[in-house]
Amino acid sequence: MKKTILFLACLSGFAAGVQAQKPDTARAVVHYKFSHLRDTTHRDKPYTENMVLFVGATSSAYKSYDRKIQEALMKKQVADQMAEQKGNGGRVNIKVTGAAPTTRNEFYQFPMQHKLVRKERLITPYMIEEPMPVIDWKISADTASFSGLHCQKATGHFKGRDYTAWFCPDLPFHAGPWKLNGLPGLIVEAYDANKEVVFKFDGLDEVTNTPKPATEAPVPGGATIKLIGMDDANDDPNVIALPTDAVKTTEKEFRNLEAAMRKDPNAFAQSAMAGSGGGMRAGGPGEGPGGGGGGPQMRIQINGTGPVINNPLELPEKK
């Protein structure tokens, strides 16, 4: 029987279905250098990350480019180590390094349906739907060029911040990075008045036919590796589609799940893996490698409380 070995790539929850959304094909891929001053006590150390926006005729998807690169490197590390440990009698010791923190959520805009969907991960994906934000943009006559793209200036207030956006009327996509949208052209760069949140344009790619990557990494010995919480249901990076196996939930329910995961990450992961049919189990208190029970074990530990964020992306509106 073919064996599948499941490795936990990030923390998640329980599988359920999301109503199918018709897939769209990206027509342009926009790169941004994202910068966010999370901690105002360290103004010289803003958080930075490379992000990417896939833009289609009827939808767009905004994701972490750094995360995608990390996932590819992680898959290679796991596959290489599995191949090296072939013949160890079922005992597997995998060490994955070099995984810096990245943005785990993704944003899908559906302008014609006036809908925004945020994708989160707690091992399996969760979907939180909300109305498409309506931003009262003021378009000015000011123009600028970004790598040969002729752009026009617009200003608007959104989520407690005053934004300047530069959009390209020659690219007739009503989309932009994160939740920004609603201009008669693609938003190629945007920033708030204090430059605490910046989406800096870093290039635009033509969409080409990209070979589909393997969804599972084969290793010698008849086993395959699937990294739970990382693989997209969609194999083609140029297709914009919501995962069909995601859990549709509300903001409140998702925050409760996050709290449950932080309280007992091993129990949370055990439930998720049981639902996925995985062959790996999370070790309980006092259990080490070789403890009771069948199948490989892992122990999940969450250290600290995460980064200091006293200046969130979305600020409360002043009354």
Task: Explain what this protein looks like in three dimensions.
This protein has 319 residues and is mainly beta. It has one domain (3-298). 14% of the residues lie in helices and 36% in strands. The protein contains three helices and 18 strands. The protein has helices at residues 65-84, 251-263, 265-276; strands spanning 3-8, 24-36, 47-56, 60-64, 106-110, 115-122, 124-131, 138-146, 149-158, 161-168, 186-192, 197-206, 217-218, 223-228, 239-240, 247-249, 281-282, 297-298. β9 and β10 form a beta hairpin. It holds the Pfam family Porph_ging. Residues 275-296 have a biased composition (Gly residues). Keywords: Signal. Residues 1-20 form the signal peptide.
Q: Can you give me a brief rundown of this structure?
A:
The protein is mostly beta strands and 319 residues long. The chain is built from three helices and 18 strands. A hairpin with a 1-residue loop joins strand 6 (115-122) and strand 7.
- Please indicate the count of domains: 1
Shape: globular
Major sheet description: 13 strands, mixed
Strand portion, in percent? Answer: 35-45%
**How confident is the prediction overall: mean pLDDT?**
78
Structural class designation: mainly beta
Poorly predicted parts: 1-19, 211-217, 279-298
Number of strands: 18
Radius of gyration: 21 Å
Fold topology:
Layout: E1 3-8, E2 24-36, E3 47-56, E4 60-64, H1 65-84, E5 106-110, E6 115-122, E7 124-131, E8 138-146, E9 149-158, E10 161-168, E11 186-192, E12 197-206, E13 217-218, E14 223-228, E15 239-240, E16 247-249, H2 251-263, H3 265-276, E17 281-282, E18 297-298
Parallel strand pairs: 1-14, 7-16, 17-18
Antiparallel strand pairs: 2-3, 2-12, 2-15, 3-4, 4-5, 5-6, 6-7, 8-9, 9-10, 10-11, 11-12, 13-14
Helix pairs in contact: 2-3
